[in-house]
Amino acid sequence: MKIDPVYAFELDAGSDELLGYEATEEDARKAALAHLRELWVRDRMKIKVPTAIYKVWLNPIDTSLLLDIMNFPDERADWRLVERKERIAVVTQ
Predict the structure, then answer these.
(1) Which residues of 47-67 are buried (b: 16+ CB within 10 A; e: fewer)?
(2) How far apart (Å, rounded) are the C-alpha atoms in residues 18 and 21?
């Protein structure tokens, strides 16, 4: 497991065997930053400390990045997470 020191996102390159395509750390970082920007816009605040750890996978079928929320110890963990996950897949295609 490799954790980004600034944003505390798990950067997972995935597995060629499992996914049929190897996502790069840059792919993971791009999706993580897209999610952080989404939080800034939705909550109108800047997050100074990490609020979650995410694992990023690349879907081999439609090749869009998906965000799998592993840990979200924050009151903002609500129904909007599903919506965010879908929006990030679109943003990072």
Answers:
(1) eeebbbbbbbbbeeeeeebbb
(2) 8
String of DSSP letters for 33-54: HHHHHHHHHHHTS---S---EE
Q: Which element (helix H / strand E) includes 67?
A: strand 65-71
Residue 43: φ, ψ to 5°: -100, -5
Which stretch of DSSP H or E encloses residue 26? helix 25-43
Written as six digits, the tokens of 44 are 């109108």
User: Of the candidates 77, 18, 79, which has an alpha carbon nearest to the alpha carbon of residue 53?
Assistant: 77
In the predicted structure, residue 75 carries a pLDDT above the cut 50: no
pLDDT in tens, 37-69: 666 665 655 544 444 444 444 333 333 333 444
Work out the number of other CB atoms within 10 angstroms of the CB of residue 86: 13
